[in-house]
Amino acid sequence: MPLLNEVLTANQAYAATFDKGDLALPPARAFAILTCMDARLDPAKYAGLSEGDAHVIRNAGGRASDDAIRSLVISYKLLGTKEWFVIHHTDCGMEFFTNEVITGLLANSLETAALGEDGFYDVGTGPGSDAAAEIDWLTISDQAQAVVDDVAHQGTSAGARPHPGPRLDL
Amino acid sequence: MPLLNEVLTANQAYAATFDKGDLALPPARAFAILTCMDARLDPAKYAGLSEGDAHVIRNAGGRASDDAIRSLVISYKLLGTKEWFVIHHTDCGMEFFTNEVITGLLANSLETAALGEDGFYDVGTGPGSDAAAEIDWLTISDQAQAVVDDVAHQGTSAGARPHPGPRLDL
């Protein structure tokens, strides 16, 4: 079955028994979680969320990027969240490369790289692209410091109370 | 119970029976979902995901922001996703304001606004901040066009195949 059909079929099954259509727009438990896009993380499960409870913002690394701050300010100013959690995890892909590495990989080819003992290496054929050279990829060199940095960055941005959540051990 | 303790308690309960610690870093089903931070959305449930299946990127509106593109390029180039879904929803908070509205609300006060029939209005006392005046808040004026725009923006950015997912009806 094509992936699109798998997703649509799963969605139809969920919708068929969905009975929470009257939930309010503002999060009922008035908080937000900023966490990583990592496929192994299910924030609803790991933090005990039901539909309607909390905003969940996810990106590569769970970083307090400008876009995460945009989302958190909306979460606070318009939708009333009072606390924000930054939740990172061990074995994060963002620890396994640097700006220089991904810039080089993308310059080399636009095919998916492989991950070996010494980090990511390219297996594709070119041409690549140098369009990524100016991007800050927000990689992580120190797990604990990354959470501290992301909480501090939020703290200067809006009125809700940010704090680190549990670090998930994968 | 303080919110932090609620989250920690829920996390401990989940961790106590967690038996998927050997999942691989790359998503097993090789796809990513870009969707909204809205508290009423549970992507794992609405798309049928188990831990390890797919990257999930979430921000205010599920928009293809620069940070979402950063995450998607990492998802494709380093972790091998082949398809990306943009999944928006009805009754999205991003339809209820404009850049001008939120800039004005933040300039007025840093307390949470209220939502009335005519949109958000401020109930707080100042001072506010004009630090947000230069931000593009990526609001949505047309639900369908927003998905088209976000898929198109992804399409110019990397090699995976982006397409719209089901629009969720909240």
Q: How would you describe this protein?
A:
- The structure is a homodimer of 170-residue chains.
- Chain A is an alpha/beta fold.
- The first copy, chain A, has 2 domains: 26-96 and 138-164, Carbonic anhydrase (Beta-carbonic Anhydrase, Chain A, 3-Layer(aba) Sandwich), CATH 3.40.1050.10; 98-136, no CATH class.
- Helices cover 32% and strands 16% of the residues of chain A.
- Chain A contains 5 helices and 6 strands.
- Chain A has helices spanning 3-16, 43-47, 66-77, 99-108, 143-155, and strands at residues 31-36, 54-59, 83-87, 114-116, 119-121, 161-164.
- In chain A, strand 4 (114-116) and strand 5 form a beta hairpin.
- Chain A starts with a helix and ends in a 6-residue tail after the last strand.
- The mean pLDDT of chain A is 92.
- At the A-B interface, helix 1, helix 2, strand 2, helix 3 and helix 4 of A face helix 1, helix 2, strand 2, helix 3 and helix 4 of B.
In a few lines, what is going on in this structure?
The structure is a homodimer of 170-residue chains. The first copy, chain A, is an alpha/beta fold and 170 residues long.
